[in-house]
Amino acid sequence: MDEKKALLVLENGAYFVGESIGYEADAEGEIVFNTSMAGYQEILTDPSYKGQIVTMTYPLIGNYGCNVEDVESWRPWVEGLVVKELAAFPSNWRKEEGLDEYLKKHKVVAIQGIDTRRLTKMIRTGGAQRALISTSEDDVQNLVLRARSIPPIVGRDLVRDVTTDKAYRWREKTYGWPHGYLEQKRLRHFVVAYDFGIKRNILRNLASNQVDVLVVPASTPWEETFRMKPDGILLSNGPGDPAPLSYAIGNIKNLVGKVPLFGICLGHQLLALALGGKTYKLRFGHHGGNHPVKNLESGAIEITCQNHGFAVDIDSIEEVAKLTHLNLNDRTAEGFCLREKHLFSVQYHPESSPGPMDSSYLFRDFIRMMENFKGG
User: Fold this and answer.
1) Which of 40, 163, 302, 321 shows a CA-CA span of 20 to 30 A to 96?
2) Residue 136 — left, alpha, or beta (φ > 0 → left; ψ -120 to 50 → alpha)?
3) Is 292 exposed, middle or buried (0-12, 13-18, 19+ CB in 10 A)?
4) Region 316-321 average pLDDT
């Protein structure tokens, strides 16, 4: 093959010929699309994308470069990246390196120069599917067979690949000009955060609300967590199918009613399963920073950041929990609460990163829930 040539092949037999950018190797996973216009570095480092190849629908990516501050974890987790065009001359006062250089350094396989509009329409019509990017082979028929042999997302425990190995403290607040990230000195609450693939901006939002956060591995027994006497427990975002995570579901089931719980994304799904509910796979998922959600309690419309391929069947928990948020694109459940058990959760990302900040009030709601629990 030509040194810079790359192929993107889908399990349905479709293929695209483009140019290799980033690390030259082969990458495989479930292909999805993200509609955010910016925030590519946050997307690359979001652990929720473990097992997936991400297509950016915005046509020009990389125009402001990369830096060490705009990351959501310690490394990129996407299996591969697909863009229409990589910006050749990124320019920004915070830029430390270009996106191509960043991808190479972290060994992320990527392809540019393909019709991402056609690809996005294909995913919307046919659903998210297995795909691979190859820089080493140009036999399309063989690549299609390889794509069809990739393990599906359904039924896999991807959390074990992204969770922390050991517990750690977090007190860094959200970004503020001109000093950047500062440490929170005033601490009023203690929260244990289960790391199913947690994003740093979730932790920063907690710290900014005077929370001392202890992040623990996903498999930490509930008894150990409860003995720490936290004011509340956060159930984080993470990758893939929630159903195989029996260890997490069992832990959460035992914590319900004993301590305030706040679930985000995968944490929201796991909380529903712990309450006896069901989840299901979406056709092509929700990935982007522009999803409209209605707050059914206030009537307000929030523009939200989302990244998930599964959803909660709200009918399966309607006898125990109340629907609080609704997706206005496809009417899927975006949040529920069970006030007598001091818990609530949302399917979207109130920490944004990238995305709007309409939903940041949820962290303050979590603080109030913890205070009411202690007061009661």
Assistant:
1) 163
2) alpha
3) middle
4) 96
User: What average pLDDT does range 333-360 have in this prediction?
Assistant: 96
Q: Are the C-beta atoms of 209 and 127 separated by less than 8 Å?
A: no
Architecture of domain 159-375: 3-Layer(aba) Sandwich (3.40)
pLDDT per position as a tens digit, 41-59: 999 999 999 999 999 999 9
Active site residue 72: no
Q: Give residue 375's pLDDT band: very low, low, confident or very high (50, 70, 90).
A: confident
292 upstream amide cis, omega within 30 of 0: no
CATH number of 5-148: 3.50.30.20
The catalytic position among 287, 291, 308, 349 is 349
Catalytic site includes residue 179:
no
Active site residue 66: no
The burial of 106, by beta-carbon neighbours within 10 Å (0-12 exposed, 13-18 middle, 19 or more buried), is given as: middle
Average pLDDT for 71-97: 97
Bond before 230 cis per omega within 30 degrees? no
One fold for 5-148 and 159-375:
no
Predicted TM-score (pTM) of the model is 0.97
Per-domain residue ranges of the chain: 5-148, 159-375
Distance in angstroms (rounded) separating the CA atoms of residues 255 and 341: 10
pLDDT score at 1: 45
Q: How confident is the model at residue 376 (pLDDT cuts 50, 70, 90)?
A: low
